[in-house]
């Protein structure tokens, strides 16, 4: 065989493999969206779920998922940012940082159901927090942390060393250089990392069944006092999320329209995650263009 | 490569007022027992351009970076750096202050991902200058001194990364002189620039000697002979010869210098 032929065969083989990956993705997305989208309506999105009769919606579940996401990010982002800055800017290359990195790797590979049960025993039972958004957010932080730390560290690493030298040479302190020069330059990457990890959090179910719970009490969206039991902002109330709802409807749902509720909820879940993904790309590109003057 | 006698040196002390000098400066990288820079004792005259020349790995950049303590985090530096009567290589000296007096411009233009004016004001604000009038004065003066003002005066809020390489490098010079330093260290500032930008940069540097003392590392020997008054030749971590630029290029005392400037080297 001539080099030309081998190259052509290899290229075709690689193209074929890529095609398979794309087809699997398109088939999955298409199937979920086409079978679910007809069941999505304004009524479906804005009415509470129903346990026994048909016609229930996903209003509270959708809100719970978003609220849980915000709380999770509020807890995990500062922790992740601090650790990433430490790993990328301060820590040298020694056994201690090696240990931290290994710990982060292990954390990211924990099975979610194990984290869920751990959260159940520790937060729900031992700490008496009960099934609540707060317990769920802490459990989700466990997943989110490694993803965030790694993506933020990567973004910081991608800022060239010459930028650090420029800051230091102007008489700036290390911290001032990091805060004023390195972090802004890494911002597009950091933002993209946050949004992509948000997609993962948004779709998580197993860890939430035992922490945020499976019940969706009636919420009062007019009550802005987070300490009231029925307020939608109360972090101590149990909260069934969209992903948990899909699981529950499919396993123990007794409503006559369980199949269509599950299909519709799945479509909404997928669409929201797709919005996160495309949004991440758009915002990252926009920020990058803004900082580099369109070049 | 021919083995030259590294102990045979010819180093003068310029008769002019001295802005900065080093005594027996040695730089050790990592845990190396062998210094990367050995016993460098040089005196730099005020308001002149001094060029540091030598092959790659001769230690000239290492030496330059030691002068404003940029090597602090990566190397151990022994010896004295005398500036205004103090040894600024002492651990008691405030390095942030040192770097405000001794500015630096790097090989690759490294403007911040900020607007042109923010590139200049960022470090000024950090140094405690908050008066808006003062800040905009400094932006204008430093850009004029760096010969960039006419090209960017209408786009001060545009991103610095949208400038050409030559403009970016002059912005980096403006950023450094906005801090009102005494001394400017330049580490091969023209190596990433095209010939036209290089010429422009050299004219700018000549102009800057009215107010600043300049020490420049360069690979380009024509550049060294065009712009500098004194030249030091570095070889394998040793300074072998230091004299007036004309002397170095026409009648050097040391064989290695002669071979290097005539291109018979290595």
Name a few traits of the molecule:
heterodimer; A: mainly alpha; globular; B: 266 residues; alpha/beta; Rossmann fold; seven-stranded mixed β-sheet; five-stranded antiparallel β-sheet; 35% helix
Describe the 3D structure.
Chain A: InterPro entries: MetI-like, MetI-like_sf, Phosphate_PstA. Chain A: Pfam families: BPD_transp_1 (PF00528). Chain A: This is Phosphate transport system permease protein PstA. Chain A: It is found in: Cell membrane. Chain A: Residues 62-280 form the ABC transmembrane type-1 domain. Chain A has helices at residues 3-36, 42-46, 59-90, 95-108, 112-126, 133-158, 161-169, 174-203, 206-209, 242-252, 258-292. Chain A is an all-alpha fold and 295 residues long. Chain A has one domain: MetI-like (MetI-like fold, Orthogonal Bundle), CATH 1.10.3720. The two termini of chain A are 44 Å apart. Chain B is built from ten helices and twelve strands. A seven-stranded mixed sheet of chain B has the order 1-12-11-5-10-9-8, sandwiched between helices. In chain B, helix 3 (116-126) crosses helix 4 (132-145) and helix 4 (132-145) packs across helix 6. The longest helix of chain B is centred in the middle third of the chain and has 14 residues, at 132-145. Chain B starts with 9 loop residues before the first strand and ends with a helix. The chains are: A mainly alpha (295), B alpha/beta (266). The interface between A and B is medium-sized, with 23 and 29 residues.
CA gyration radius of chain B, whole angstroms: 19 Å
**Largest sheet, strands/sense/barrel of chain A:** none
Tell me the structural class of chain A. mainly alpha
Task: Please report the total strand number of chain A as a whole number.
Answer: 0
| Rg of chain A, nearest Å | 23 Å
Label the overall shape of chain A: globular
CATH hierarchy: architecture of one domain in chain B = 3-Layer(aba) Sandwich
Which class of one domain in chain B in CATH terms? Alpha Beta
Helix amount of chain B, in percent? 25-40%
CATH superfamily of one domain in chain B: P-loop containing nucleotide triphosphate hydrolases
Structural class of chain B: alpha/beta
- Number of DSSP helical runs of chain A: 11
């Amino acid at each position: 065989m001539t080099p030309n032929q081998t190259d052509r065969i290899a290229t075709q083989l690689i193209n074929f493999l890529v095609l398979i990956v794309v087809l699997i993705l398109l088939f999955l997305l298409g199937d979920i969206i086409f079978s679910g989208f007809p069941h999505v309506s304004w009524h479906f999105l804005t009415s509470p779920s129903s346990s026994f009769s048909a016609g229930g919606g996903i209003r509270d579940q959708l809100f719970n998922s978003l609220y849980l996401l915000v709380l999770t990010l509020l807890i995990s982002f500062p922790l992740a940012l601090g650790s990433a800055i430490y790993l990328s800017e301060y820590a040298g290359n020694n056994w201690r940082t090696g240990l931290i990195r290994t710990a982060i790797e292990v954390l990211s590979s924990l099975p979610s159901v194990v984290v869920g049960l751990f959260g159940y025993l520790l937060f729900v039972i031992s700490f008496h927090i009960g099934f609540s958004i707060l317990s769920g957010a802490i459990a989700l932080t466990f997943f989110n942390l490694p993803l965030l730390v790694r993506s933020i560290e990567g973004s910081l690493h991608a800022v060239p060393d010459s930028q650090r030298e420029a800051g230091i040479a102007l008489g700036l302190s290390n911290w001032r250089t990091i805060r004023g020069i390195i972090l802004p330059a890494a911002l597009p990457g950091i933002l993209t990392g946050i949004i992509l990890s948000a997609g993962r959090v948004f779709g998580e179910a197993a860890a939430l069944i035992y922490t945020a719970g499976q019940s969706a009490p009636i919420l009062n969206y007019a009550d802005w006092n987070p300490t009231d039991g029925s307020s939608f902002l109360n972090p101590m109330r149990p909260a069934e999320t969209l992903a948990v709802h899909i699981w529950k409807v499919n396993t123990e749902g007794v409503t006559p329209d369980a199949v269509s509720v599950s299909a519709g909820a799945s479509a909404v879940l997928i669409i929201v995650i797709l919005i996160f993904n495309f949004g991440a790309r758009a915002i990252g590109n926009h920020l990058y263009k803004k900082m580099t003057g369109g070049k | 490569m021919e083995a030259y006698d590294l102990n045979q040196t010819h180093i003068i002390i310029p008769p002019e007022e001295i802005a900065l000098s080093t005594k027996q400066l040695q730089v050790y990288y990592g845990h190396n027992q062998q210094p990367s820079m050995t016993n460098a004792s040089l005196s730099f005259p005020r308001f002149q351009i001094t060029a540091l020349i030598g092959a790659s790995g001769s230690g000239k950049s290492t030496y330059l970076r030691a002068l404003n303590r940029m090597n602090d985090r990566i190397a151990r530096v022994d010896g004295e750096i005398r500036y205004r009567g103090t040894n600024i290589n002492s651990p008691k000296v405030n390095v942030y202050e040192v770097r405000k007096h001794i500015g630096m411009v790097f090989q690759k233009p490294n403007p911040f991902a900020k607007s042109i004016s923010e590139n200049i004001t960022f470090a000024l604000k950090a140094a405690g200058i908050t008066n808006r009038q003062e800040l905009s004065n400094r932006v204008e003066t430093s850009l004029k001194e760096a010969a960039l003002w006419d090209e960017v005066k209408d786009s001060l809020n545009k991103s610095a990364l949208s400038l050409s390489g030559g403009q970016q490098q002059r912005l980096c010079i403006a950023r450094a002189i906005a801090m009102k330093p005494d001394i400017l260290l330049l580490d091969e500032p023209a190596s990433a620039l095209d010939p036209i930008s290089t010429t422009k940069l050299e004219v700018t540097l000549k102009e800057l000697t009215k107010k600043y003392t300049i020490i420049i590392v360069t690979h380009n020997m024509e550049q060294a002979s065009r712009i500098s008054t004194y030249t030091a030749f570095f070889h394998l971590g040793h300074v072998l010869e230091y004299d007036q630029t004309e002397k170095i290029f026409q009648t050097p005392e040391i064989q290695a210098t002669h071979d290097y400037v005539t291109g018979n080297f290595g």
